[in-house]
Design a protein that fits this description.
Elements (H helix, E strand, L loop, with lengths): L3 E5 L23 H11 L4 E6 L4 H7 L10 E5 L21 H6 L9 E5 L2 E2 L2 H12 L6 E8 L10 E8 L5 E13 L2 E5 L5 E4 L4 E9 L3 H16 L9 H10 L4 E7 L4 E2 L6 H13 L9
Parallel strand pairs: 1-2, 1-4, 2-3, 6-12
Antiparallel strand pairs: 4-11, 5-13, 6-11, 7-8, 7-11, 8-9, 9-10
Length: about 300
């Protein structure tokens, strides 16, 4: 059974100043998502599911989905702050989406096979999809998940420091925890970040970090529903509280209910966070095309 790619595309794009998911960055107007779909097809994925906001469905269907006809089957699901379990009502003051794992829950009715989860506005690279596709195509049973661990040295920004979730693993390469680190940059040839004591600390270039590229089997939806109810009981009156994927994953690991294998990749991540990042992404895509990684025109 071919795995499914689940693309989280419901973000507001507020920092970038628009719907960055629809911004054409390739030479023929390709979006970052287009490159992800292209890489996923090459890696053996059999279907793509997008989670979006209902209010830009028409734009999305016209500008994005129409490209993939005759290439790969696609489906669309919608994320709304009002989509809550029975017994819960969204507070009137809530405007912020409930978070990435709430977005994942929107796929429970249409995904029946092993699936990957990615952000729409992150460029993950061909090798990231290769290692994830290979793992998911062999996924058997429940409670066994994976995460692509990008080497921190391949995820830095040229315009400033970044925050990353540094992965802690056991001797067999399974995730034991993710620690959020800030002010990560290369200084005098070394990767530095702010340590627990507030002082600069160092880590190896190859240290794995989470870029929100996960691999799950469908049993993950049931765990997510259970955890979401618990999350709402504790946080429904907190307007800025979000239900993130690592919250669920970490609890499943700590409780021994599931394992998460960290997959190494040589791919270099990049993305558009602020408008000033745009040209750098355009230039990197041009370089990958020149190197033969992608054709001049994808579709």
């Amino acid at each position: 059974m071919k795995p499914t790619l689940f693309v989280l595309a419901a973000g507001m794009g507020s920092r970038y100043g628009g719907l960055k998911q629809l911004d054409g960055l390739g030479p023929n107007g390709e979006t970052i998502m287009d490159y992800s779909i292209f890489d996923a097809i090459r890696a053996g994925f059999g279907k793509v599911v997008f989670v979006i906001r209902k209010d830009f469905e028409q734009d999305f269907r016209e500008k994005v989905l129409s490209k993939y006809e005759n290439h790969i089957p696609v489906e669309v699901v919608f994320q709304s702050i009002h989509d809550l379990p029975e017994g819960f009502t969204c507070p009137a003051e809530r405007t912020k989406p409930w978070g990435t794992n709430h977005a994942v829950l929107m796929g429970k009715e249409v995904i029946r096979e092993p699936f990957a989860v990615i952000n729409a506005d992150d460029f993950y690279g061909r090798d990231g999809f290769r290692v994830l596709g290979e793992w998911l195509s062999k996924a058997d049973g429940a409670n066994k998940y994976c995460m692509v661990g990008y080497r921190v040295g391949n995820t830095l920004s040229e315009s400033g420091t970044v925050a990353r979730g540094i992965c802690q693993t056991d001797a067999n390469g399974y995730l034991t925890g993710v620690v959020e680190r800030t002010d990560i940059a290369r200084v005098d040839g070394k990767i530095t970040f702010t340590g627990d004591d507030g002082k600069p600390a160092h880590t190896a270039d190859t240290t794995p970090v989470s870029m929100n590229m996960w691999g799950f089997t469908p049993d993950y939806f049931a765990y997510s529903e259970e955890h979401f109810k618990r999350f709402l009981k504790e946080n429904i009156d907190k307007p800025k509280a979000e239900f993130f994927i690592p919250l669920v994953v970490n609890d499943l690991i700590v409780s021994g209910k599931a394992t998460v294998e960290v997959l190494d990749t040589t791919a270099k991540w990049f993305g558009v966070t602020y408008a000033a990042d745009r040209q750098g992404v355009v230039d990197k895509i041009k370089a990958l095309i020149a190197a033969g990684e992608y054709p001049e025109k994808l579709w």
